[in-house]
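Lab meeting minutes (informal)
Scribe: AK
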Amino acid sequence: MNGYASFRILICLGFLIPSYALSQGTIKGTVRDSLDGTTLIGANVYAVGTAIGSATDREGTFRIAGIPPGPYTIRVSYIGYRMKEEPVTIGMDDVVLDIHLVPDILETEEVVVTGQLRGQMAAINQQITSNTIVSIVSEEKIKELPDANAAEAIGRLPGVSILRAGGEAS
């Protein structure tokens, strides 16, 4: 291939690439609460059935660029709100959406919270009222840790080193 033929191929490719790049569309917009109009930070916005999507920024706005032309369903979701879908057709012009999400109640399974306050609180109070710098580990906390013995539990404290014999701390 001579230099002139390769130059003609480059010129042809130069005309094809920009026309393809121009055929890409953009979706942009804002996601808001339907009750008070506040913007929602971090809402998920994506085209259903594709890997094309984005999340809203600190102002509640999003921008998804480089979308091939055609019809899409845009899904917007945010925890604590009903999911919303909007049909759009991508062409040469930007598509601008103003999405208003309706608050929704989330139902989950029961969550049980337990605590061991008494022993740990006594240890914390001893540390606070001490005249010197001390680290105290309560009996309850030692039982809670996954250590083989008390020496390994104390080895978790800053500035404490332990010796190991037969794999266990002493």
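Next up, CB showed the second protein from the same session:
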Amino acid sequence: MLRWQGYGIPPALVMDSERDQTNQTAYLNPSVDRLYCAIDLAGPEPMGFPRRKSDQTLRVLVLGASSVQGYPHPSELAFPRHLSLILKKQLPDREVEVRNAGIIGLASTPIVDLTSQAFSVKPDILVLYSGHNEFYGVGGVATNAPLSPLGIALGKSRLIRCLSGISTGRDANSSKGGPDLIETLPASYQIPAGSPLISRADSVFRTNIRRIINLCRQHKIPLVICTPVSNLRDQSPLVLEADMPILRKFEKPIQELTSQKQWKEL
């Protein structure tokens, strides 16, 4: 009955275009993010593309989080769009399509599920840019939005979504990846250097990367794994383990501002 009434968020990454009665045009489902988190995130970019591609088409699908989606800028300015322009110049005899499947705030666990669905796009190459959200992202190890492969599978059930109260629409007051999302997801704002969360995040990330690699091997699709950029220069830890008198005088104000969530002052 739930299926007949059309209840629930479509769980598929790829959807048929309602405007194309021949079902020859598809698009990336922008509501698939609601399967991973009750908070409305943003992404993927819902650009239409033909389900059938010619032999001259090079179709690239990029997977990741906000760095892929483009936040805080529009998806038109994200690096998948730049990649498309570069490839078109380098391959003038090919029809290049670069599809942006980035979703704000995802850790690697839900990206494994997206990868399992990505092959319905019929990509020639998958590009993975992930790793920034393994602590505080959706499915991270220190987040208020934990997620497991079993939880994702159950979340695709219309009955489970009905019982959990997940609706079909988007919340008009949702954060769209804004400050509310940043304040809501972290379960703890302090992770000491010796915390077991660090080794756990490393283990989960490695496991998920291996799963993505194996999925691509099974489908014989080349995978490009990118190293996320990181700029730690001039960023001292909030919790100081060593005796550093110069930085000690800043520790208390930093902790007070952090506990009060005064991000601008911090």
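CB comment: The first helix runs from residue 66 to 69.
No objections, moving on.
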